[in-house]
Amino acid sequence: MTRAHPLTGNLLERRLQARRLMQIANVLCLVLLLIGTQTVLAHLWLDTALVGLALVAVLIGRRLNQCGLVDASIRLVLFILTALVTISLWFSQGLYSGALLAYPGILIVAGMVAPLRLFLGLLLSMLAAVAVLTYAALSGLQHFEPLPMGVGRMINVSSILLMCAAAVWLLASDLRKTLLRLQQEIARVKDSEASFTHLAQHDALTNLPNRLLLRDRVDQAIGHARRDGRQVALLFLDLDNFKTINDSLGHAAGDELLQEVARRLRETLSDIDTVSRQGGDEFLVALADVDDLAMVSSLAGRMQRRLAQPFTLKGMQLVTSISIGIALFPGDGEDFDTLLRHADMAMYQAKSAGRNAYCFFDERMNADNRERLALELDLRQALSRDEFVLHYQPIVDLRSGRLLAAEALLRWRHPEFGLLGPDRFIGAAERSGLIVEIGEWVLGEACRQAMLWQAGGLPRFVMSVNLSAVQFRRGNLGEVVQAALTRYGLSPSGLELELTESILLQDCEQLRQLKELGVKLSIDDFGTGYSNLAYLQRFQVDKLKIDQSFVRGLGDNPQNQAIVTAIVQMARSLGLHTVAEGIEDEATRQLLVELGCDQGQGYLFARPLPAAELNSFVTRQSLPV
How many Cα atoms occupy the beta-carbon half-sphere of 235 within 13 Å? Predict the structure, then answer.
């Protein structure tokens, strides 16, 4: 809450004092005029003179107040009024006089506008005056007698009462206004506190509870479940292709998608359950009163079906899916942190199972996770220990069987687990960020080996290297490729870089830089992503690699034949070559030739081979025709 500056507060207080003083001065002028008129009519010339002096003092004080001399005005008016009332008491009726009522009125005014020291000074002077008047009356020094009741006395007393009433009314009015402002300020502070509390406990983008609030609700649910013998479920949700949508359509569209996902999740859940945004494209769902696993499975399925319905963003309809990991209290954990960790593991298991799936936590996942962590630790030392090696799988002309290219495939000679394929460690390398260093090593080693084969007299063929999306995000891929080509002397035309379709949507500038270098670009696993023709034309892609999921069992699957035919015809219309992956039998090769596919790779021709074995393979050229 913002505090007012002290100087600002003092200025406001002085303005309030000046306004009060002006109001009181106006009332005093009216009262003094009434009293003065009465004293003139009664021929009380001393009282008339005193009232006149008082009126002059009030008018002077009023003028000083208008000039901004508030303190001087207050002191002048209050001291002169006190003195004149005291003089009037001495020369008239003493303590019998109605003028004595002016003392409380002056004190009320002083309490409203004067500082404490001035107020106490006036009070002491009045007490002293009362004491002196009493002593004078008792000692015979002055003789005081009350005047008989009459209209004049009534006017004097009534005028003084009017002045006191006006002062009290002004004071009460100020108090009421102050109380009202205080109540409004208290209400504002409470509203601010409620707003701050809401902001501290909710996600700003989706207005869903954040993890802080979810933790509190899960802790409460666990307490109730422990007492009642029930279960609590924590679900970890992750959108499967959010990054691609975010990169291709922009962050604003990504935010809009997250808001719509949040809305759909809220609609799917009951009032006693909680959906929370964990961060990024991750959400958490807490189910507070769980009967059995079937209930959780049913809800997970409903959420997946709800989110599988198309989203409309920027005039386009997009489809996404979610992977869900599930952990249950008490079986999978006794507290929020344990449940969250286990639900996270289960979510990654769902991702590994092909995405758009849900998976319950299993204790074996802990062992898998420990193995994964150990693998990441070993990965950090693998480069320095020279434990990586490349194998090369031939890519051949489907008609002639001639070797056209070789795809460099990474292997890890693990000291404990033996030779590992990339499926065992690439995920860990990407999570740890080591994929960038490993990717640079692969690129350099592939260029080095290609030059060794050329120097050894082997027929020239293209070296094909896979690139990771993580390498693209670093932003320096053009420089890395140029450095590898320069270091080993490989011609850019002898290098082909394999990209996924999602990479085409990420970084246009880097793709232009790569084409300007003269290297070839191919799209790996074509048909499994967005298949955006505009991007294929814009970046002058050279080759489409048809995913093996469409190639295996091609002869028995008319739908896959139609897909492969469409890809081949589209590529031909764009002037691109096609490569079929995963060819394992002669019948598939012949069918691909009939469909118009240009090149192929697979176990029919050769498995991925170490460099020395590829030498023999090229020499023999024992390829089916």
Answer: 30
- Tell me if 445 is assigned to some domain: yes
Whether residue 487 contacts residue 508, with contact meaning beta carbons closer than 8 Å, is answered with: no
Each residue's pLDDT tens digit, 131-172: 888 888 888 787 777 766 555 556 656 666 776 676 666 666
Rounded CA separation 443/392 (Å): 13
Ranges assigned E (strand) in 205-264: 231-239
Helix (H) or strand (E) holding 283: strand 282-290
Report the chain's terminal Cα–Cα distance, integer Å. 82
Residue pointed to by tokens 């990504």:
254
C-alpha gyration radius of the chain: 46
Dist. CA 471–CA 262, nearest whole Å = 31
Q: Quick check: bond before 459 cis, omega within 30? A: no
* More reliable by pLDDT, 139 or 449: 449
Element (H, E) at 417: none
Do 342 and 232 sit in the same domain of this protein?
A: yes
pTM above 0.85, yes or no: no
Q: What is the DSSP letter of 603?
A: T
Bridge partners (DSSP) of residue 625 are none
Average pLDDT over residues 503-532: 77
Contact 579, 404 (CB under 8 A): no
**Domain membership flag for residue 596:** yes
- The 3-state secondary structure of 572-592, one letter per residue: HHHCCEEEECCCCCHHHHHHH
Domain CATH number, residue 339: 3.30.70.270
Listing DSSP states for 437-495 in one string gives HHHHHHHHHHHHHHHHHHHTTPPP-EEEEE--HHHHHHS-HHHHHHHHHHHHT--GGGE
Strand-pairing partners, residue 290, are 231
CB 57 within 8 A of CB 81: yes
Section 223-241 average pLDDT = 91
User: Residue 580: pLDDT above 90?
Assistant: yes
